[in-house]
Inverse folding.
């Protein structure tokens, strides 16, 4: 999924650069129109990018959600890996008492 986000970020960067160049040409050719300050264009691009990432994360959460059963044991919480050393230490404590 991160590879998809990286490709999307590169695509958006290229598109925004092209759009900025086009807007500059249009603003130079027409008189009497106001253009945004460069810092405001950058801020708008960042906010737009963060909004797109937010939407993608929400879609991922909705569609890539695993079904969790109510009777999950402790090993499934830790990704299915057993902590054998912890179990051995707990067993030693029980037997030493």
């Amino acid at each position: 999924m991160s590879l998809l986000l990286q490709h999307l970020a590169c695509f958006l960067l290229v598109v925004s650069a092209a759009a900025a160049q086009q807007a500059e040409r249009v603003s130079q050719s027409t008189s009497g129109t106001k253009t945004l300050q460069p810092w405001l264009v950058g801020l708008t691009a960042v906010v737009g990018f963060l909004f797109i990432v937010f939407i993608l994360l929400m879609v991922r959460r909705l569609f890539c959600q695993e079904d969790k059963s109510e009777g999950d044991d402790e090993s499934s919480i830790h990704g299915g890996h057993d902590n054998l050393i912890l179990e051995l230490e707990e067993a030693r404590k029980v037997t030493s008492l």
